[in-house]
Specification:
Layout lengths: L12 H18 L9 H14 L7 E4 L5 H8 L5 E5 L2 H13 L5 E4 L12 E7 L1 H5 L5 H15 E11 L4 H8 L3 E7 L3 E4 L2 E4 L2 E7 L3 H14 L1
Parallel strand pairs: 1-2, 1-4, 2-3, 4-5
Antiparallel strand pairs: 5-9, 6-9, 7-8
Helix pairs in contact: 1-4
The structure holds S-adenosylmethionine.
Protein name: Protein-lysine n-methyltransferase mettl10
Length: about 230
């Protein structure tokens, strides 16, 4: 069992809206795209993994809590054109749209709360999350919200789909434990290591999950496909 994190302002929509309001102003005044969470190196590692392990560039990709949209913009420039970004902060979406338009990237960005019970998204091959599950883990009622997140991601991802989640709040083992009801570990993307007191650890964890294959999943997708055709 993982202990819950103490909730704080980073777990609130108000915090992100205010923060992105400032970032929109900065972008408009001097073209600064704002923070690249966890740094460029992590972005490069995710993209490198996508290019080698998931070579199908037409795959449908969703970035949850896309913020300024830079991860998708980088992916788009690497040839992944079927990409969508969502964030529950309207100001984040305003910022992402402005940057993408300026850089001539035809990416769909929209406002969406990933833990919404009536979520309208579906059928993604790849879902990316860099820091958004972390933010949800810092919300009030975090455990409930984390479970809603896991259920929704499971629902909107294809049966053969993968989830790539990058976190600085949870270790690899904790994420595997939390996601085990709906996901199995596929792979860990190596992240920079640090040494402290003779122990080696990672500050950031980047992990690839695949949908858990169980009889319910098989039946669900069998019925869905039968209805489609
Ligand atoms: C640490 S930032 C990371 C932003 C972006 N992924 C990046 O790497 O630059 C967390 C993001 O998650 C978004 N977020 C938090 N909770 C969310 C939710 N329930 N639904 C959608 N987005 C959410 C925030 O608005 C914020 O943009």
């Amino acid at each position: 069992m993982c202990e819950e994190l103490e909730h704080c302002e980073l777990g609130t929509q108000e915090y992100w809206n205010n923060r992105y309001q400032e970032e929109v102003k900065n972008y408009q005044s001097h073209g600064d795209v704002g923070e690249i969470w966890f740094g460029e190196d992590i972005v490069d590692r995710i993209i490198k993994w996508m290019k080698t392990a998931h070579s199908e560039k037409s795959c449908r990709v969703l970035d949850i809590g896309c913020g300024n949209g830079m991860l998708l913009i980088e992916l788009y420039n690497e040839g992944f054109k079927n990409v969508v970004g969502v964030d529950y902060s309207e100001n984040a979406i305003t910022l992402a749209k402005s940057i993408a338009t300026k850089l001539q990237c035809n990416i769909e960005f929209s406002v969406c709360d990933i833990i919404d019970e009536n979520i309208k998204l579906s059928d993604f091959d790849v879902i990316l999350d860099k820091g958004s599950y972390d933010a949800i883990s810092l919300s009030f009622n975090a455990k409930e919200n984390r479970n809603k997140y896991i259920e929704n991601v499971h629902k909107i991802l294809k049966a053969t789909g993968i989830l790539i989640i990058t976190s600085c709040n949870w270790t690899q083992e904790e994420l595997i434990e939390q996601f085990k009801t709906h996901f199995d570990l596929k792979e860990c993307i190596p992240t920079p290591e640090y040494k402290f007191g003779g122990k080696v650890g990672n500050i950031v964890t980047s992990i690839v999950f695949k949908q858990k294959i169980n009889i319910e999943n098989y039946l669900f997708y069998f019925i869905l496909n039968t209805i489609h055709y």
